[in-house]
């Protein structure tokens, strides 16, 4: 099959619909890709870049390109093109989340056990949040350290406090406290881990990818959507006491929760900060009505 001019970055499924995004995230959150060696992932990246450059190896098929793009999207950051750490990838959410949730549900009888496993959970979440941030916004090692400490400590205090409340809460309320703890911790961990985006804004572009500036309001919108997605993702696992059921739930809920909102988020120019909005209007007039940005996952 002649593949000249094949646009490998064109969405395979319609990203404007929930079902299209669901199929996309089912593909890139496939936990089997987490088992592949770095060399295989680098081969996929090389094939994707060859396709972009119009220099495909002879005999390359469309299915090979689709699979290479699946591996590329699952393992390489959309902003930088760098390979993401294994634990932070969404393809690792099912095995990683299932193992940690299992330990949290098993070791809950003593305060030290609750504190330790909540710390492990919040450290895991912090790494995932950092890995899937908008990487177009620079962050220093010191800022990463401050973000990690504030994210894990505040989320840990929130989660442990609510979990300890279950010992004196009415049975009906106690049943939902673990989920409330995870939800509340996510509401703290994600903004804290990505606080530099809120403080300094994230890169926004026009429809064609041309950089227009940095927006704090765009960061707030994107991070809010990520918080909603993560709380949704955690819901089934924290309402069950069975590892198999938790794992099965995560297999569906990870891609489903990621699909709630488009990863390439949009925002009306009129909703931006006044100075940024005025700068865009003065330079582009009415030609740019919406800006776009990677909200992260």
Detailed description of the structure:
This protein has helices at 18-28, 38-53, 62-75, 93-106, 111-131, 141-165, 171-174, 177-193, 195-200, 216-238, 243-258, 274-284, and strands at 202-205, 211-215, 264-268, 290-294. The strands form two sheets. Strands 1-2 form a two-stranded antiparallel sheet. The two termini are 35 Å apart. It contains twelve helices and four strands. The protein is mainly alpha-helical. 60% of the residues lie in helices and 6% in strands. This is Sideroflexin 2.
Helix content: 55-70%
**Which stretches are poorly predicted, pLDDT < 50 over at least 5 residues?**
none
Number of helices in the DSSP assignment: 12
Number of strands: 4
Strand fraction: 5-15%
Average pLDDT, all residues: 85
What structural category characterises the helix and strand content?
A: mainly alpha
Overall radius of gyration: 21 Å
Q: In whole angstroms, how far apart are the ends? A: 35 Å
With strands numbered from the N-terminus, the spatial order across the biggest sheet is: 1-2
Organism: Scleropages formosus
Keywords: Amino-acid transport, Membrane, Mitochondrion, Transmembrane, Transmembrane helix, Transport
Membrane topology: Multi-pass membrane protein
Subcellular location: Mitochondrion membrane
